[in-house]
Every structure is written in structure tokens, then in C-alpha cells.
Amino acid sequence: MVDAENKEQAHYREVEWLGKKFPKSDRAIKIRLLLQLNTLVCTSLGIFWTICYSFFSRIDLALIFVALFFVGVCSYFSAKKFSYQYLAGIAHALLLIVIAISLIDSPIEDVPRSAHVYFLPLAIGVVFVFNQKDRYMGIIFPRLCLILFAIFGVGLMDMDVSSISPPENIRWIGCISNYIFSTLVLACILKIYIANLNAKVDLAFNLAQAVSKNEIVVHYQIQVDKDGNPLGAEALVRWMHRERGLLSPDKFIPLAEESFVIRDIGLEVLRQSCHLLREWSEDPLLQNKYIAVNVSPVQLIDDDFVSDVIKVVQAAGVDPGLIELELTESALSMDAEKASLKIQQLRDFGIRWALDDFGSGFSSLAILKSLPVQKIKIDRQFIKDAKSSESSKNLLKKILEISELMGMEAIVEGVEDHSQHTMLVDLGYSQFQGYLFGRPNPASDLTDSIRSRRG
């Protein structure tokens, strides 16, 4: 039972990470479209029926649709930066509202019950947002919706609620609008799903062959000290699709995570990075520069992860101390104990570790203290907030102090202008990454960039 709960929580955190790390992915776009559709339907129905019932002095019924309106408003804000906690909350709020309107929508002569039809689009929408790895939201919740649809549909919940039922002279309007709206919503959900599925199937087929066809391309973004001297670079994966051209991670990493192709892609990125380090080892100016490679949550839970990484590094014949593996905080929630063990095994081999996107969602001092990492990478959102918020600036300073107390280095990503750089240097930071110093470029351009700087 505990293992099942841990796996479900792991999936929850993994998908949460994908939504934040890749907000423009096909999956994120699909979820946003569904939220926007929900916003339109909930606010429209909420406003119309609130006005209608207020006109008939039925404030008790109007309040239900005021609640529906606010659910639509919440959907609007969730669509901008969705969180799975908010998504689950919206789904449950809709469930309670549909139950409430179905209970008061008791059938009368010539007017059947109709409000229960909203259980269908709710069930299907939830299935499309939460897949079956999420046992409760992906399986139990939609089945509950279907069961309630059947119960209300066959009349098992019929009771005398005439005192709180809608006025009879608008029951036909309600019945017609319920069937029209629910059918339109179902059609829109299916259209969104089919469009997403077609694109996903085509992309997945090609992605499975991307590594073997040498279509995985690695670009590198330079990392520098406070004086602009190069320290190393971060490896950033791209996919040279034969029809769509060069694709950014947003377009394929979430799919690679779902299909587990990320394991092969991750090793290929490491392999190419090691090859570059091998070339650098023959140049005195470059031989002490490191490369940071991202590790996905799916890679970290792979039983062969440690041995595969060691094999790649040994085959390249490079110094493991020049390799820095970056993992996100969400990876730790999958199985923190096993993750820490694998991190330590590779650290014993000589590889360095960094905690990426620090402060973006799941950080805690307890987790940070328990991890054998040598560096934390400050999330770019802190930098944006610090320009306009003194408290955010003070928080940045405290994070640096904590990292120093724990014997860790700290690097700031997302530095885009000189004012940000100056502020961070004044706060005591000494390692940086961002467009101010260079955009992600092919290996040859990175090498030229490092040579052009003082190292």
C-alpha cells in the first residue's frame, strides 16, 4: 500500500515538474486548452443562471452558480501556470457542483432530469489531464463520475425536492441548455484530445528512432565567474527532426519522459558531452572546464542508471570530475533514499552533482542537508522577483549564506542583463549562467567562445 502511494506521489511530482520545466510542451498546451474551455463554460453558465435565478428570487440556487462562476475564474488563472493541486481542486469543485444541481434537478412531468449529463465531460476531461499512473485522479475519480451519471440517470436518486427545485417555467430551458452545453463541451474535449493524440503518435514514432538515427543534437550554454571568465557549460538537448527542423526540449522531452525514451536520450547527451570533454583535454586552455548534464526523474529511478553513466564516462576516457550531473528537486520525491544512494555512488566515482531549479517548488533544508550534492542552481524566478522585491533580494542573500554553511557552491541561472549581474555580485554570488553571457550554441561555437574569454 505504501509503495503504491509512493509511486502515485512520484508520478504526481514528475508531471508537476514537466509542467513547470516545459510550459510549452504539447501536454501542457492540451491542459491549458481544457482549462480555457472550462473557464468559458463555467463563467458563461455561472453568469446566465445566477442572473436567471436572481430574477426569480431564488438566491439559494443562484449561489450554486456563483460558485460555478468562481470555479471558472480559478480555471482561468490555473491555465496561466497550472499546478496539479489546483487541477485536482477544480475537478472536485466541479464534481460537488454537478452533484448539487443534479439533486435539485428532479424530473417532473414532460421534463426529464438533465443536469447529470455534465458528469460525462467531467469524467473524460479528468482522464485526459490525469493519466492512469495517478491512481485516484486518473482512475477512481472518473469512474466515480460515471457511476454518479448512471445513478442519477436511472432515477436512483429521485426524491421530493420540490421546495428547492428550479421554477417549473424555466425547467425546459435548463434541460435544453444542459444537453447542448454538455454535448458541445464533449465535442471540444474530444477535438483537443484527438489533435493532441495525432501529433503525439507521430512524434513518438520518430522520437523512438532519434538516437539511432543520430538526430539528437546537444547545444551548450556557457557558465562564468563574476568577472566573466568561463567555468564550463550546461549541455542542452535539441532534436533535429527530419521534417520539423530543430526542436527545443519543450516539444519532445515531456513525451520522452512518458515513453521512457529519455533514458536513451539522456545517455546520448552525456556521451556527446564526454566526447567534447575529450577534445578539450588536449587544449591547456580548455582542459579544466566542466560540462553540466541534466538528469531526468525517469533516468534516476532506472536500476541501470549508475552503471550506464559509469560505462559512458569510462568509454570516453575523461575525468569524471569534469562532469556535473544536474537533477531537479522533483526527482527526489520519487524515492529520496534510493536517489541519494545513486547520487553518492556516482559521487564516489568522481562525478559532481548539482540541484537544479532550487526553490522552484519542492525544496526543504532537510532534503538539501540529506543530499550529497556539491552545488545548488538558483531558479531564474528568484532573479526576476529580486529586481522589484526587497524581500526576494534578501532571500537570495540567505540562500547563498545557507549554501556556504553547507559547503555547497551556488550558481544563478537566467541572468539576462547587467543590472541583474551587478545585483547578484553585490549579494556575493560568483557563478552565473544566462543570455547575458551567451545563448545555447553548438559545441564548436562554445569552444570558440571560451577561447575568446579569459580562462
UniProtKB/TrEMBL annotation:
Under the heading Pfam families, the entry gives: EAL
What is the residue range of the signal peptide feature? Answer: none
Q: Which PANTHER family does the entry mention?
A: CYCLIC DI-GMP PHOSPHODIESTERASE PDEF, SIGNALING PROTEIN YKOW
Q: This protein's superkingdom? A: Bacteria
Q: Which SMART domains match?
A: EAL
Q: Name one GO molecular function term.
A: cyclic-guanylate-specific phosphodiesterase activity
For this UniProt record, the keywords arranged alphabetically read as follows: Membrane, Transmembrane, Transmembrane helix
Membrane-crossing residue ranges in chain numbering: 33-56, 62-79, 86-104, 116-132, 139-157, 169-190
UniProt source species: Comamonas testosteroni (strain DSM 14576 / KF-1)
- From the Swiss-Prot or TrEMBL record, give the protein name: Diguanylate phosphodiesterase
Q: Which residues form the EAL domain?
A: 200-454
